Each structure stands twice: as C-alpha cells, then as structure tokens.
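Work Package 3 (structural annotation) set out to generate three-dimensional models for the target panel prioritized at the project kickoff. During this period the team completed the workflow that converts sequence records into discrete structure tokens, so that structures can be stored uniformly alongside our sequence database. As a representative example, we reproduce one entry of 111 residues exactly as it appears in the project archive.
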Amino acid sequence: MSMKTFESLNPATGDVIGVFPQTSAKEVDEAVAKANVASEHWASLSFRKRGIILRDWASILTREIESSADLIHRETGKPISDARLEVSIAIEHIGWAAKYAPKVLSDQSRP
C-alpha cells in the first residue's frame, strides 16, 4: 500500500472528513483485477441468488440511511434532506433490480 495520502474535504465547510491512501498505478491494476474476478463470480450466480443479495443490501442501506446520508452530506456539501433522498432512491432502484432483473435480463429478444 502506498504511503502517500490525500484528504477528502467537505466542500461546504472545508473540514477534513477523511484521509485516504493514494494508490499507485500497480495498485489500481490489482484492484481492477480483483473487481473482474468478483464480476465473474457475480455473473455465475442465479438471478434468484442475486436478488437475495440485492434485497439484503437494500435492507442494510435502509437501516443505515442516516449514516449514509450524513456521509453524502459531508462529502458533497448537499443538504442532508437531499442526501436522504439520494439514498432512498438508491434503495428503490436496488429493490427494482432485485425484483425485475430476471425478466428484463432474460435471453428472450424483445420486439
């Protein structure tokens, strides 16, 4: 891991909200390779299993809506109400994907 870091600042206040490692090109390549492996694993799962995972994720986001909204608020400077709405919309989209992915991603061609 690189020793260099960078700060994430709240654009509304300038406060430091986090310090993160600055990655090298090699580390980025390694992360992309790991993501590709994870993507292949995800693709190997049935729609039913993916739906279960997506619903679990939506459930976690629902429980953590305030902390997620607070993080978005601090990272972007947007009002907390907008951040809550953003998380709520994400939860709705995840739920939609869990419910309808088997239908919209089936092998049938659509006219």
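Strands lie at 5-9, 16-21.
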